[in-house]
Protein backbone atom coordinates (compact mmCIF):
# COMPACT_ATOMS: atom_id res chain seq x y z
CA UNK A 1 0.00 0.00 0.00
CA UNK A 2 2.81 2.40 0.86
CA UNK A 3 4.67 1.81 -2.38
CA UNK A 4 1.40 1.97 -4.31
CA UNK A 5 0.77 5.43 -2.88
CA UNK A 6 4.05 6.62 -4.38
CA UNK A 7 5.88 6.83 -1.06
CA UNK A 8 9.47 5.50 -1.12
CA UNK A 9 9.86 2.56 1.25
CA UNK A 10 12.88 0.49 2.27
CA UNK A 11 12.50 -2.85 4.05
CA UNK A 12 14.91 -4.09 6.66
CA UNK A 13 15.91 -7.74 6.79
CA UNK A 14 14.07 -8.01 10.11
CA UNK A 15 10.50 -9.29 10.01
CA UNK A 16 7.63 -8.33 12.27
CA UNK A 17 7.27 -10.73 15.20
CA UNK A 18 3.88 -12.26 14.46
CA UNK A 19 4.63 -15.52 16.22
CA UNK A 20 7.06 -16.99 18.69
CA UNK A 21 6.61 -20.66 17.85
CA UNK A 22 9.65 -22.83 17.25
CA UNK A 23 9.61 -22.41 13.48
CA UNK A 24 12.51 -21.77 11.12
CA UNK A 25 11.58 -18.07 10.63
CA UNK A 26 11.59 -17.61 14.42
CA UNK A 27 14.97 -19.29 14.75
CA UNK A 28 16.34 -16.96 12.07
CA UNK A 29 15.11 -13.79 13.85
CA UNK A 30 18.38 -13.14 15.78
CA UNK A 31 20.27 -13.33 12.48
CA UNK A 32 17.79 -10.98 10.83
CA UNK A 33 18.12 -8.56 13.75
CA UNK A 34 21.92 -8.60 13.48
CA UNK A 35 21.76 -8.02 9.72
CA UNK A 36 19.25 -5.18 10.09
CA UNK A 37 21.40 -3.00 12.33
CA UNK A 38 24.17 -2.21 9.78
CA UNK A 39 21.44 -1.80 7.18
CA UNK A 40 19.62 0.73 9.39
CA UNK A 41 22.89 2.47 10.28
CA UNK A 42 23.69 2.93 6.59
CA UNK A 43 20.19 4.23 5.83
CA UNK A 44 20.20 6.79 8.64
CA UNK A 45 23.76 7.87 7.86
CA UNK A 46 22.90 8.36 4.18
CA UNK A 47 19.63 10.20 4.74
CA UNK A 48 20.80 12.26 7.76
CA UNK A 49 17.22 13.00 8.89
CA UNK A 50 16.71 15.87 11.30
CA UNK A 51 14.26 13.76 13.29
CA UNK A 52 12.79 10.27 13.24
CA UNK A 53 9.26 9.24 14.20
CA UNK A 54 8.45 5.68 15.25
CA UNK A 55 5.56 3.74 16.75
CA UNK A 56 8.07 1.48 18.47
CA UNK A 57 7.48 -1.90 16.87
CA UNK A 58 10.10 -4.61 16.93
CA UNK A 59 11.26 -3.70 13.40
CA UNK A 60 12.10 -0.18 14.65
CA UNK A 61 14.77 -1.38 17.07
CA UNK A 62 17.70 -1.23 14.61
CA UNK A 63 16.65 2.21 13.35
CA UNK A 64 16.26 3.63 16.84
CA UNK A 65 19.67 2.32 17.88
CA UNK A 66 21.24 3.73 14.70
CA UNK A 67 19.59 7.09 15.36
CA UNK A 68 20.86 7.11 18.95
CA UNK A 69 24.44 6.42 17.82
CA UNK A 70 24.25 9.11 15.12
CA UNK A 71 22.55 11.57 17.49
CA UNK A 72 19.39 11.89 15.44
CA UNK A 73 16.46 12.71 17.77
CA UNK A 74 13.64 10.18 17.87
CA UNK A 75 9.97 10.75 18.71
CA UNK A 76 8.29 7.57 19.93
CA UNK A 77 4.49 7.27 19.93
CA UNK A 78 2.75 4.49 21.87
CA UNK A 79 -0.98 3.95 21.43
CA UNK A 80 -1.67 1.36 24.13
CA UNK A 81 -1.90 1.80 27.88
CA UNK A 82 0.63 -1.00 28.43
CA UNK A 83 3.73 -0.66 26.21
CA UNK A 84 5.34 -3.80 24.85
CA UNK A 85 8.94 -4.84 25.37
CA UNK A 86 10.25 -3.31 22.15
CA UNK A 87 8.52 -0.01 22.94
CA UNK A 88 10.06 0.09 26.41
CA UNK A 89 13.48 -0.56 24.88
CA UNK A 90 13.12 2.10 22.20
CA UNK A 91 11.73 4.56 24.76
CA UNK A 92 15.17 4.67 26.39
CA UNK A 93 16.67 5.70 23.04
CA UNK A 94 14.04 8.32 22.19
CA UNK A 95 14.27 12.03 22.92
CA UNK A 96 10.53 12.32 23.71
CA UNK A 97 7.66 9.87 24.13
CA UNK A 98 4.10 10.64 23.03
CA UNK A 99 1.24 8.51 24.34
CA UNK A 100 -2.49 8.02 23.91
CA UNK A 101 -3.25 7.40 27.58
CA UNK A 102 -1.88 9.30 30.56
CA UNK A 103 -1.35 6.02 32.45
CA UNK A 104 1.29 4.96 29.91
CA UNK A 105 3.72 7.63 31.08
CA UNK A 106 4.10 5.78 34.38
CA UNK A 107 5.84 3.00 32.44
CA UNK A 108 8.10 5.15 30.25
CA UNK A 109 10.97 7.60 30.87
CA UNK A 110 10.49 11.36 30.80
CA UNK A 111 9.77 13.49 28.89
CA UNK A 112 6.47 11.78 28.17
CA UNK A 113 3.52 13.77 26.84
CA UNK A 114 -0.14 12.96 26.33
CA UNK A 115 -1.12 13.57 22.71
CA UNK A 116 -3.82 11.00 21.99
CA UNK A 117 -4.05 8.79 18.92
CA UNK A 118 -3.95 10.26 15.40
CA UNK A 119 -7.14 9.52 13.45
CA UNK A 120 -8.54 10.14 10.03
CA UNK A 121 -9.68 13.76 9.64
CA UNK A 122 -13.11 13.98 11.25
CA UNK A 123 -13.27 17.77 11.47
CA UNK A 124 -15.28 18.16 8.27
CA UNK A 125 -17.67 15.26 8.90
CA UNK A 126 -21.22 16.48 9.44
CA UNK A 127 -23.43 14.18 11.51
CA UNK A 128 -26.68 15.16 9.81
CA UNK A 129 -25.15 14.69 6.36
CA UNK A 130 -23.67 11.37 7.42
CA UNK A 131 -27.03 10.11 8.66
CA UNK A 132 -28.65 11.28 5.45
CA UNK A 133 -26.00 9.36 3.47
CA UNK A 134 -26.88 6.15 5.31
CA UNK A 135 -30.62 6.94 5.14
CA UNK A 136 -31.06 7.02 8.90
CA UNK A 137 -34.24 8.88 9.93
CA UNK A 138 -33.83 11.72 12.39
CA UNK A 139 -35.80 9.90 15.09
CA UNK A 140 -33.98 6.54 14.69
CA UNK A 141 -31.08 5.21 16.72
CA UNK A 142 -28.09 3.71 14.89
CA UNK A 143 -25.47 1.22 16.04
CA UNK A 144 -22.18 0.66 14.24
CA UNK A 145 -20.70 -2.82 14.80
CA UNK A 146 -17.23 -3.73 13.58
CA UNK A 147 -14.63 -6.11 14.88
CA UNK A 148 -11.64 -5.01 12.81
CA UNK A 149 -10.31 -5.47 9.30
CA UNK A 150 -11.09 -9.20 9.21
CA UNK A 151 -14.20 -11.20 9.99
CA UNK A 152 -14.46 -11.77 13.74
CA UNK A 153 -16.53 -14.84 14.56
CA UNK A 154 -17.38 -13.59 18.03
CA UNK A 155 -19.01 -10.47 16.58
CA UNK A 156 -20.74 -12.37 13.77
CA UNK A 157 -22.26 -14.84 16.21
CA UNK A 158 -23.45 -12.12 18.57
CA UNK A 159 -25.17 -10.20 15.77
CA UNK A 160 -26.73 -13.38 14.39
CA UNK A 161 -28.10 -14.35 17.82
CA UNK A 162 -29.42 -10.84 18.49
CA UNK A 163 -31.33 -10.45 15.22
CA UNK A 164 -34.14 -9.64 14.67
CA UNK A 165 -34.60 -7.94 18.07
CA UNK A 166 -31.45 -5.91 17.49
CA UNK A 167 -32.92 -4.49 14.27
CA UNK A 168 -36.15 -3.69 16.14
CA UNK A 169 -34.19 -1.50 18.55
CA UNK A 170 -31.83 0.28 16.16
CA UNK A 171 -30.61 0.58 12.62
CA UNK A 172 -27.51 -1.61 12.48
CA UNK A 173 -24.48 -0.73 10.35
CA UNK A 174 -22.43 -3.93 10.45
CA UNK A 175 -18.92 -4.12 8.95
CA UNK A 176 -18.41 -7.85 8.50
CA UNK A 177 -15.20 -8.26 6.53
CA UNK A 178 -15.21 -9.98 3.13
CA UNK A 179 -15.31 -13.56 4.45
CA UNK A 180 -18.49 -13.09 6.51
CA UNK A 181 -20.35 -10.79 4.12
CA UNK A 182 -22.30 -13.49 2.28
CA UNK A 183 -23.58 -14.96 5.55
CA UNK A 184 -24.60 -11.48 6.70
CA UNK A 185 -26.57 -10.93 3.48
CA UNK A 186 -28.35 -14.25 4.05
CA UNK A 187 -29.23 -13.15 7.59
CA UNK A 188 -30.60 -9.93 6.21
CA UNK A 189 -32.79 -11.69 3.68
CA UNK A 190 -34.21 -13.93 6.43
CA UNK A 191 -35.48 -10.92 8.38
CA UNK A 192 -39.13 -9.80 8.12
CA UNK A 193 -39.57 -7.21 5.40
CA UNK A 194 -40.01 -4.24 7.73
CA UNK A 195 -36.71 -5.05 9.50
CA UNK A 196 -34.67 -5.89 6.43
CA UNK A 197 -33.77 -2.28 5.72
CA UNK A 198 -32.72 -1.74 9.32
CA UNK A 199 -29.86 -4.26 9.12
CA UNK A 200 -27.11 -2.95 6.80
CA UNK A 201 -24.11 -5.29 6.38
CA UNK A 202 -21.00 -4.08 4.53
CA UNK A 203 -17.86 -6.06 3.70
CA UNK A 204 -15.76 -2.93 4.32
CA UNK A 205 -16.29 0.78 4.76
CA UNK A 206 -13.29 2.69 3.47
CA UNK A 207 -14.03 6.26 2.45
CA UNK A 208 -17.46 5.94 4.09
CA UNK A 209 -16.12 4.89 7.49
CA UNK A 210 -15.89 8.46 8.77
CA UNK A 211 -19.55 8.99 7.92
CA UNK A 212 -20.51 5.70 9.60
CA UNK A 213 -18.71 6.72 12.77
CA UNK A 214 -20.41 10.12 12.77
CA UNK A 215 -23.86 8.67 12.02
CA UNK A 216 -23.80 6.15 14.88
CA UNK A 217 -25.32 6.72 18.30
CA UNK A 218 -23.36 3.77 19.71
CA UNK A 219 -20.19 2.04 18.49
CA UNK A 220 -19.52 -1.64 19.21
CA UNK A 221 -15.98 -2.82 18.50
CA UNK A 222 -12.61 -3.97 19.73
CA UNK A 223 -10.58 -1.82 22.10
CA UNK A 224 -7.78 -0.75 19.81
CA UNK A 225 -6.35 2.71 20.29
CA UNK A 226 -7.73 3.98 16.97
CA UNK A 227 -11.28 2.76 17.63
CA UNK A 228 -11.36 4.52 20.99
CA UNK A 229 -9.75 7.66 19.55
CA UNK A 230 -12.19 8.01 16.66
CA UNK A 231 -15.26 7.42 18.81
CA UNK A 232 -14.14 9.87 21.49
CA UNK A 233 -13.19 12.49 18.90
CA UNK A 234 -16.88 12.40 17.94
CA UNK A 235 -18.18 12.04 21.49
CA UNK A 236 -19.86 8.70 20.79
CA UNK A 237 -20.40 6.08 23.54
CA UNK A 238 -18.61 2.76 23.11
CA UNK A 239 -19.24 -0.90 23.78
CA UNK A 240 -15.78 -2.44 23.82
CA UNK A 241 -14.97 -6.14 23.47
CA UNK A 242 -11.20 -6.29 24.00
CA UNK A 243 -9.17 -8.68 21.88
CA UNK A 244 -8.26 -11.35 24.43
CA UNK A 245 -4.69 -11.94 23.28
CA UNK A 246 -1.67 -9.65 22.58
CA UNK A 247 -0.70 -9.51 26.27
CA UNK A 248 -4.03 -7.94 27.24
CA UNK A 249 -3.20 -4.55 25.69
CA UNK A 250 -6.78 -3.94 24.59
CA UNK A 251 -8.22 -4.84 27.99
CA UNK A 252 -6.09 -2.10 29.54
CA UNK A 253 -7.20 0.39 26.86
CA UNK A 254 -10.83 -0.50 27.46
CA UNK A 255 -10.39 -0.15 31.21
CA UNK A 256 -9.34 3.49 30.87
CA UNK A 257 -12.34 4.30 28.64
CA UNK A 258 -14.67 2.54 31.08
CA UNK A 259 -13.19 4.33 34.09
CA UNK A 260 -13.81 7.62 32.32
CA UNK A 261 -17.44 6.63 31.75
CA UNK A 262 -17.17 6.58 27.96
CA UNK A 263 -17.45 2.81 27.46
CA UNK A 264 -19.15 -0.37 28.56
CA UNK A 265 -16.67 -3.27 28.49
CA UNK A 266 -17.67 -6.87 27.74
CA UNK A 267 -15.14 -9.70 27.94
CA UNK A 268 -14.63 -11.55 24.67
CA UNK A 269 -15.87 -14.87 26.06
CA UNK A 270 -19.01 -13.19 27.43
CA UNK A 271 -19.95 -11.37 24.23
CA UNK A 272 -22.98 -13.04 22.70
CA UNK A 273 -26.39 -12.02 21.40
CA UNK A 274 -27.80 -11.44 24.87
CA UNK A 275 -24.84 -9.30 25.89
CA UNK A 276 -25.14 -7.26 22.70
CA UNK A 277 -28.85 -6.62 23.26
CA UNK A 278 -28.19 -5.67 26.86
CA UNK A 279 -25.49 -3.22 25.75
CA UNK A 280 -27.74 -1.64 23.13
CA UNK A 281 -30.06 -0.86 26.02
CA UNK A 282 -27.86 2.20 26.49
CA UNK A 283 -29.83 3.78 23.65
CA UNK A 284 -33.10 3.36 25.55
CA UNK A 285 -31.76 5.32 28.52
CA UNK A 286 -31.37 8.96 27.40
CA UNK A 287 -29.66 10.05 30.59
CA UNK A 288 -27.08 7.26 30.50
CA UNK A 289 -26.45 7.83 26.80
CA UNK A 290 -26.00 11.56 27.37
CA UNK A 291 -23.56 10.97 30.25
CA UNK A 292 -21.53 8.47 28.23
CA UNK A 293 -21.45 10.87 25.28
CA UNK A 294 -20.13 13.64 27.50
CA UNK A 295 -17.48 11.33 28.97
CA UNK A 296 -16.48 10.17 25.49
CA UNK A 297 -16.10 13.75 24.33
CA UNK A 298 -13.95 14.54 27.37
CA UNK A 299 -11.49 11.85 26.27
CA UNK A 300 -11.39 13.00 22.66
CA UNK A 301 -8.22 14.42 21.15
CA UNK A 302 -9.03 15.16 17.50
CA UNK A 303 -5.80 17.17 17.15
CA UNK A 304 -3.52 14.29 18.20
CA UNK A 305 -1.82 14.13 14.81
CA UNK A 306 -1.04 17.85 14.90
CA UNK A 307 0.33 17.56 18.45
CA UNK A 308 2.69 14.73 17.48
CA UNK A 309 3.76 16.61 14.36
CA UNK A 310 4.64 19.61 16.52
CA UNK A 311 6.90 17.42 18.66
CA UNK A 312 8.67 16.06 15.56
CA UNK A 313 9.10 19.52 14.03
CA UNK A 314 10.40 21.00 17.27
CA UNK A 315 13.17 18.39 17.42
CA UNK A 316 13.89 18.72 13.71
CA UNK A 317 14.24 22.50 14.03
CA UNK A 318 16.26 22.33 17.24
CA UNK A 319 13.55 24.20 19.14
CA UNK A 320 12.45 23.49 22.71
CA UNK A 321 9.64 21.00 22.96
CA UNK A 322 6.17 22.53 23.35
CA UNK A 323 4.92 22.66 26.92
CA UNK A 324 2.41 20.16 28.23
CA UNK A 325 -0.23 22.90 28.13
CA UNK A 326 0.55 23.62 24.47
CA UNK A 327 0.37 19.93 23.56
CA UNK A 328 -2.91 19.65 25.47
CA UNK A 329 -4.38 22.57 23.58
CA UNK A 330 -3.26 21.29 20.17
CA UNK A 331 -4.38 17.73 20.79
CA UNK A 332 -7.81 18.91 21.92
CA UNK A 333 -8.12 20.72 18.61
CA UNK A 334 -8.56 24.17 20.16
CA UNK A 335 -5.25 25.75 19.15
CA UNK A 336 -4.95 28.15 16.26
Q: What are the main properties of this structure?
A:
15 helices; Rossmann fold; four-stranded parallel sheet; globular; 336 residues; alpha/beta
Q: Which CATH top level class of the largest domain fits?
A: Alpha Beta
Alpha carbon gap, first and last residue: 33 Å
If helices are DSSP runs of H or I spanning 4 or more residues, what is the number of helices?
15
Could you give a short account of the major beta sheet? Answer: 6 strands, parallel
Mean pLDDT reading = 93
Structural class: alpha/beta
Q: What's the name of the CATH homologous superfamily of the largest domain?
A: Glycogen Phosphorylase B
**Element pattern in H and E:** HEHEHEEHEHHEHHEHEHEHEHHHH
Amino acid sequence: MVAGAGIPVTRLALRSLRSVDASLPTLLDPIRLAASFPQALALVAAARPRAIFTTGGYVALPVALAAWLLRVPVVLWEGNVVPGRSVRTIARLARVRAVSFRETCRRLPEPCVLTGTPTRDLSSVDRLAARHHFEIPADARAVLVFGGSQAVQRFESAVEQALPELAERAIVLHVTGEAAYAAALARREALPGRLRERYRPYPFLREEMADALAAADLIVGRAGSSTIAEATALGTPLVLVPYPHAAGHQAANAGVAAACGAALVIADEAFDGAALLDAVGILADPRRHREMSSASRSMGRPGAGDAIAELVLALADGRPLPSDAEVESISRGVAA
